[in-house]
Amino acid sequence: MPTAPRSLVRKLVLTFLLPSLVILALGAVFAYFRTATALRESVFERLDAVATVKATALDVWVEHLVHDVVLLSELPELAELTSDLSGEVPEARRLAADERLSRLVNLTLERTPSFTEFFFLAPIGGEVLVSTDSRHEGQFRIYDRYYVEGRKAPFVQNVYPSPVTLQPTLTISAPVRTESGEILGVLAAHLSLEYLDQNILGRTGLGRSGGVTLVDRYKVVVTGERYGNEATVAGTTSVAIEEVIQGHAGVGLYRDSSGAEVIGAYRWLEDRELGLIVEIHQREAFSLARRLALSILAVGSLVLTLLVAGVNLAARRIARPILAITDAAARVREGNLSTRASASTDDEIGALAETFNGMIEQLAADAKAREEAEAIREALIAELEAKNAELERFAYTASHDLKSPLLTIKGFLGYLKRDFESGRAERARTDMERIEGAVEKMERLLNELLELSRIGRVVNEPEEVCLRALSREIAESIAEREAGRVEITVDEALPVVFGDCVRLREVLENLVENAVKFMGAQSSPLVEIGVRRDGEETVLYVRDNGAGIAPEYQEKVFGLFDRLDPSVEGTGVGLAIVRRIVEVHGGRIWVESEGENRGSMFCFTLPEG
């Protein structure tokens, strides 16, 4: 099949499509990188600003709490109470001072939720004299850094794992002195690090994937809930962690300790002895650039699709007449003669299309005529073959069965001649009776053959036939003729069918009479005219309890002149007539029997009315 027109359309479309795709891809890539660069600088500035805010908030929070502890340590009342605790005073006065000091620190703890515990340490030995957690009273803190440094001046021990609570702890301490400067003890307070998690480590302003990390100089992650991190303990680290513990500050693109690609800002907080790292996943940070690039691709693809459609339409309009004729020719080659070339131009191609269509119409007419002639020929051949086969069977059976009475007539005519010559009148009369019986038998055979030949040609007007009423008439007539020797029952469910009433009466009469004739030695003859359902099919039947039919003869009984029992009167044409009538009505007939002396059931189907 020629492909030049299709190649022309393809070439026109591809000539436009390929450069457009390259331009679109380059534009999307350029937009992505330009946007990503701008976003990276913007994210750097934002993360640096967040780090500054977080660091300032942490310093302000700690300094504010240092101020609270120092202010409390300088209260005259506190100095008075601590002097009573550590000086040589009566026991009652010491106990009273202990009780008042306990109330004071507990009241301060209730009013300052940022602290988890206030306690007062002896100036020598570091014994916990009073604490808001009474379990710690009597313990010693002589080597704790906040005690050692707190005896000299206000001191902040930055986040460390408490050996007592095993929780991350930040402790503020301050000396309690007399007016003369003599040290009376150390006031210390543990801070609640919930503020650290909620405000410093919160991801506010950092999107869904952002986060803030505090790490000490040993690369241990610090939070308010725990001190330490499985990743860092296992040795996993990142560029930011390595840089920040060396005191460096900066921003960059790198992989965090979990291996995720992030963009981050980091700095060392000297006063807090912690590194502050603010990070956000690169995927989220650059999502705007990706969305922009995807939007450019989507809009560009849509525009490109529309343009390609336009170019394709224009190219097809140019090549449409040739394509129409080419496609039509291909379909004609495949045998589709109903196709037409739809070229509507007024030029030479249009004229070619009209000529081509005329040629197809002529081919279609010729093909249709050939098909009709072939169908008629096949039907006539099939009908002729069937008629020939039927005629051959008919001629064979007729010649065979008619030969018997003819032989009888011929034989007894010889006897009759000899009897007349010998003057034996009585024997001659007997011979004449035999000849007369053979003639009558031949007449019956000829009449039934004539009847069989008429079935399908001489047809009465079809009508609705109530088989129940028809079967009752036939049953009453045959029962009366048999003088009650046989019982005939009729099923009340017999349907109404559509057909030739006269012929259908012949079917039922033949089947019932046949059942009565072949009762054999049955002492209680019974014939039933009934109906049953086989799936979607309604089956009518005539059943008897007579001699039965062996399986090898169940098809043979419908043959012309076939008689299973020659001793029973009949010509052997009845069941052949029955089958022909049923088949002419569009049905089928068969016999069911379990064998000799087991009864028979002749089943047939008819179109229901």
Would you give an account of this structure?
The protein is an alpha+beta fold. The protein is 53% helix and 17% strand. The chain is built from 14 helices and 17 strands. The protein has helices spanning 4-73, 76-86, 91-111, 145-150, 194-200, 230-233, 239-244, 282-285, 287-333, 348-422, 425-454, 467-481, 501-517, 574-584; strands spanning 115-121, 128-131, 155-161, 168-177, 183-191, 211-215, 221-222, 250-255, 261-269, 274-281, 463-466, 487-490, 496-499, 526-534, 537-544, 589-592, 600-604. The protein has a five-stranded antiparallel β-sheet with strand order 2-1-5-4-3. The longest helix is centred in the middle third of the chain and has 75 residues, at 348-422. The radius of gyration is 60 Å and the shape is elongated.
State the secondary-structure class. alpha+beta
Alpha plus pi helix count: 14
Low-confidence stretches: 1-5, 229-235
What gap, in angstroms, lies between the N and C termini?
A: 57 Å
How helical, in percent, are the residues? 40-55%
Overall geometric form:
elongated
Average of pLDDT = 76
Please report which band the strand proportion falls in: under 5%, 5-15%, 15-25%, 25-35%, 35-45% or over 45%.
15-25%
Strand runs, count: 17
Strand order of the largest sheet: 2-1-5-4-3
Mind summarizing the main beta sheet?
5 strands, antiparallel
Radius of gyration: 60 Å
Structure in a nutshell:
The protein has helices at 4-73, 76-86, 91-111, 145-150, 194-200, 230-233, 239-244, 282-285, 287-333, 348-422, 425-454, 467-481, 501-517, 574-584, and strands at 115-121, 128-131, 155-161, 168-177, 183-191, 211-215, 221-222, 250-255, 261-269, 274-281, 463-466, 487-490, 496-499, 526-534, 537-544, 589-592, 600-604.
